[in-house]
Amino acid sequence: MANLVTEVGSTAEERPESSAVVLGDHRFDYAELWEEIGAFADGLRAAGVESGDRVALYLPNLPQFVIAFHGTLRAGGVVVPMNPQYKPREITHLLNDSGASVVVSLADLVPYVEAVWDDTDVETLVTVGDETDAGTQFEAFLGDPEFETVERADDDVACQPYTSGTTGQPKGVLLTHENLRSNAAQSASLMPGGEIRPDDRMLGVLPLFHIYGMTVTMNATLFDGGTYMPLPSWDVEQALDVIESAGVTVFHGVPAMYNDIVNTDTEGERDLSGLRLCGVGGSGIPEEVLRRFEELYDTTIYEGYGLTETSPVTHFNTPDEGRRVGSIGKTLPGVDAMVVDDEFEPVDPVPEGPIDEDETDLDEITGEIVVSGRNVTKGYNDRPAANEASFTHRDGKRWFHTGDVGYHDEDGFYYVVDREKHVIVTGGYNVYPREVEELLFEHEAVADAAVVGIPDERRGETVKAFVVPRPDADVTPDEIRDYCLDQLAEYKHPREVEFVEELPRTTTGKVQKFELVDREN
Predict the structure, then answer these.
(1) What is the pLDDT of residues 15-42, one digit of tens each?
(2) Which of 161, 176, 191 corresponds to the end of one domain?
(3) What pLDDT shows up at residue 218?
(4) Residues 415 and 485 placed together within one structural domain of the fold
């Protein structure tokens, strides 16, 4: 039983002069990183942060995120990662639900924090980047690097990321020190040879506020002594430059990133031969994108699956056990999974997948995928009803309901065929239609609205809004789109807005969204 941050401390003891975090010309070796983590923890203590207190990180992928994340843990606090694309409307809920008293913010985002200050419990603001009139600059906030790590138990909460459900309001996911520690180790074991090596260089393009980037790229690398190379934002040319020049060996991305690469380097002129593992998650990768990437660079993409609630990875196609295109892979060591029907009875596997879905009665072979293991969250913050609905205790195990419908085969490979929850997955991000719909209904010109996901070559899906304008409303689709963009993260806003006379509804008033989706297919 130990604080998760001791994993970084152990690496610092073993490899003090090895490169830990590298961004451009900025390099931290492990000894320097550990000192910075301690100094940040001491700054939090001086600010009054105690064990269990929440510290919100409102930052892109920067070394300061790494330092603040692990510094918060070292001080005994709980990290609340916030998407730097979020606007005041969105961060207000996260700050209030978590009760965060400290925010570490990029200087450019400080005005958003100031806008909600009086409506939250925030007492301390730490800024990263250019000087501002508000808060304390990151470097000035740092204290004594010899800070003594606060002890925490395995079951204590370490991080509280947010994920939305069909109700639309984001829910705080309580991930413990053991959840994150176990899944970082499980993720590292998926590498060829079963480990991340000290000479591995991990490209950090997945956002650190997202559990995929946090666990699989940052923590797994730092816990095993590799080099983490963050990029603050996705830029395909910049990413390719770093992969080539730095000899990156590990690249995890979402399908849209791979699509950008094959559409940019169409002749495969870039030298990506240093890559020994390419992983993809967030949503299913189109087989054509996978094929083109593998042909261009003579490498293999391994697809996996997970959720915020599972820290995140539960399934993966591994280099050592092979893969099946179209499958999310087998369960990780220490993770159990089942496909169950509505009565929570196991559904039998098919002999071998993937099956031809056009020639198979999916109702006979599919069910909901449920998972159990040390990486599964202890629950949602202050959401007893959601916790009651999301877990089932059976045969001595606590099973989490993923909400995804799929099947499995006799060889242990799993396949996702649909999402039970009405989630739009765009570029690896989840968008929950009700959140966008509620904002649309606040517009004075909107009488009715429904939001669905439609096919998009680059992102997999994108957001589309069907809007019924109020009579005599003086508004255009572009104005509705811009209105949403002003108040929501860029990936959430409807890229398409279509005005319609009415929405298809059942006799009970429920919008028949499948009819709207069918129009686009």
Answers:
(1) 999 999 999 999 999 999 999 999 999 9
(2) 176
(3) 98
(4) no
Residue 401 CA to residue 368 CA, distance in Å, equals 7
For the chain, give percent helix, strand, coil, nearest 5: 35, 30, 40
Give pLDDT tens digits for 193-241: 999 999 999 999 999 999 999 999 999 999 999 999 999 999 999 999 9
d(CA 153, CA 457): 45
Could you write out the three-class secondary structure of 89-155?
HHHHHHHHHHCCCEEEEEHHHHHHHHHHHHHCCCCEEEEECCCCCCCEEHHHHCCCCCCCCCCCCCC
Read off the tokens for 175.
């991930």
Kindly report the pTM of this predicted structure. 0.88
Q: What is the CATH number of the domain that holds 82?
A: 3.40.50.980
Give the Cα-Cα-Cα angle 85, 159, 115 (nearest 5 degrees): 40
The secondary structure of 427-484, three-state, reads CCEEECHHHHHHHHHCCCCEEEEEEEEEEECCCEEEEEEEEEECCCCCCCHHHHHHHH
What Cα–Cα distance (Å) separates residue 122 from each residue in 84, 85, 358, 420, 461?
17, 19, 54, 36, 36
| pLDDT tens, residue by residue, 357-414 | 768 888 899 999 999 999 999 999 999 999 999 999 999 999 999 998 899 999 999 9
The span from the CA of 243 to the CA of 298, in Å, is 15
Two tokens at 6?
Answer: 């001791």
DSSP 193: G
Is the same domain home to 320 and 414?
yes
Residues constituting the chain: 521
Q: Which helix (H) or strand (E) segment is 243 a member of? A: helix 236-246
Tell whether 114 and 165 lie within a shared domain.
Answer: yes
Domain hosting 146: range is 6-176
Asked whether the bond before 354 is cis by omega within 30 degrees of 0, the reply is yes
